[in-house]
């Protein structure tokens, strides 16, 4: 199977598949915490990009369309803080934008934030359940389906966002090219994705928290720059995203690696500890990138 980025045909097995059944929609929940459970992953011998192998990739669209995530709404407060931070950062960097597109918009949190700033926004989301929740939780109408979308043909945008999406896509170059074609000539393409070369990824190895069934392509700065070049774009800027987490969420996820179950159980019974667990803290763990891309020429 050729590399998705450089098209080299030589690759080695980086990680074996460790799910002993067929895939189902729940495997692609945003809140999935089965760290280290993945499809079979290959590493390109040329560019070192890590990507999934196998016929299961053809099922991705159908599985995402059927995916429901009941627990996702529980983290909306911190997700709104995350999207507010990202939107503020991008708007400060590129203040002349009037229109935006988010591909893989989830429940429309970023779409709603940009809309409140006076920006004309479209959002596309494949999950029927999340599109329905976007109406209720964020007050926005999303286009249901994949991008490019038939209802948005010919539309051009000053910002195009892919926030924690490109790692879910079996043909990232194709999606990047479609997003490039949707940009105005001075537009910016904002991609947020885990960094497979981060310190956290190197320390945790095959147990890194971003190694999940839903993630089928793993970028670092080098492979993102290579992918950008393939579609006549350039990485103009990059920085580490700031995330916002309740302490309870951090404690629950750290319990995968450390013996913290007793403390988490105690937090349910001790009021001061429960209060502490409910606090939301900003955190930059340098395990992901925000890449800002621009066009290098007109196709």
Taken together, the total number of domains comes to 2
Counting helices, strands and paired strands, the structural category is: alpha/beta
Strand content: 15-25%
Q: How does the overall form come out from the CA principal axes?
A: globular
Rg computed from alpha carbons, rounded to a whole number of angstroms: 19 Å
Which spans of ≥5 residues are poorly predicted at pLDDT below 50? none
What is the residue-averaged pLDDT? 94
CATH topology of the largest domain, by name, is Rossmann fold
- Count of strand segments: 13
Helical proportion?
25-40%
Outline the biggest β-sheet: 7 strands, mixed
How do the helices and strands follow one another from N- to C-terminus? EEEHHEHEHEEHEHEHEEHHHEE
| Alpha-carbon distance between the two ends | 28 Å
Account of the protein in words:
This protein is of the alpha/beta class and 299 residues long. It folds into two domains: 183 residues, Rossmann fold (3-Layer(aba) Sandwich); 36 residues, no CATH class. It is built from ten helices and 13 strands. Strand 7, helix 5 and strand 8 form a beta-alpha-beta unit. The longest helix is centred in the first third of the chain and has 18 residues. It is globular and about 60 Å long. The model has no long low-confidence stretch (mean pLDDT 94).
